[in-house]
Amino acid sequence: MDPDLTPEQHEIRRTLRTLLAKRCDPDDVKAAVRTGPGYDPVLWRQLAKELGLPGLAIPEAYGGVGCGPGELALACEEAGRALLPSPLLATAALAAPLLLALGTEPQKHAYLPPLARGELTATLAVPGPALPLALGLTGDNADGSWAGGGRAGGIQARRVDSTWRLYGEAAQVLDAHRADLLLVPAHTGGFTRSRVQLFLVRGDAAGLRRTRHTTLDETRVQGSVQLRDVVGELLGGGVNEPLAATGRTTATTLAAEAVGAAAYVLERTVSYVKEREQFGRPIGSFQAVKHRLADRYVQVEAARSAAYYAAWDPDAGGLALAQALEALRGAAAEAIQLHGGIGFTWEHEAHLYFKRAAADELLFGPVPLLRARAAEQAGVYEQAGTR
């Protein structure tokens, strides 16, 4: 797919690529992720103030830029090239759409404008292993099994006078230790009439305890949240369809992000094989190396087309994500091998991209389940059964 980008979309891409090239090289990334927040707050404020990055897909009525998923995907593609550590994914792709779908007007006006300005960050507090199912990426989320089961399963909410009180815990939550707002799915109605509803919890709420985890991919910070009689605001409506809709747009932004990362690491590898010599000639001149890189190029460009198509049709997001994760994993693995001995050192930048591919598949996949879910939704299994 060859997208016809608007001048505004070209400007988003150009401006973001220029800024991140100056402020977010691999050394900057490694330094930022080892700070307390896990990212560079100064750079995040600059991205929010100058580019409106966290508010790209938030309507103007709530203080956002008013663009669509296409612009957010383009921004995430550039963020993926640099492996930008930031609250962008959790805030703009996970939390903001749910607030738009389920929040009351007072809640939207209270929280969306500061989210759009980058003054607040937010996340969805679903345990990591259950996140792809909750978002409808690897199966049907209608039965609520992703939120835990039984009287003591998952997070429980009960009404005390005029407030809701939450009790429980969730692990492997994106940006758990730093988010100013947490959207927390919790069981209500007791054991016999239990149903899952979504609650808004302030990051400074009494009884909330948060811990940062050590993760494979340092650029994608995760942590655990413990709620001990914590006050939460109820968000209206059923959660299954809004979560599934959010999952489709999240898959699109993740696919674009992975494509950006894959394209960058492939470009770096092509540049390196033109310089590295063996037997008196650049290794990039060997036919076997050319073929390997050509295969990766085709894979990355196919994934890019799939990601751009998904920005137009979010229902294709899951399949685009599967293709993009495979492209990133393949490009990063090729980079490690073709860089030779230095590529196998843990400190080389290629490992940042390889770990991102592996960690994203663990958190949002795996790829076979993403493909199986896409096939199920497309009716492939039903068609096969009638033959």
From TrEMBL:
It comes from the Bacteria. GO terms for molecular function: oxidoreductase activity. Its EC number is 1.-.-.-. InterPro entries: Acyl-CoA_Oxase/DH_mid-dom_sf, AcylCo_DH-like_C, AcylCo_DH/oxidase_C, AcylCoA_DH/ox_N, AcylCoA_DH/ox_N_sf, AcylCoA_DH/oxidase_NM_dom_sf. Residues 6-119 form the Acyl-CoA dehydrogenase/oxidase N-terminal domain. Residues 252-376 form the Acyl-CoA dehydrogenase/oxidase C-terminal domain. Its cofactor is FAD. It holds the Pfam family Acyl-CoA_dh_N. It is an enzyme of class 1 (oxidoreductase). Keywords: FAD, Flavoprotein, Oxidoreductase. Belongs to the acyl-CoA dehydrogenase family. This is Acyl-CoA dehydrogenase family protein.
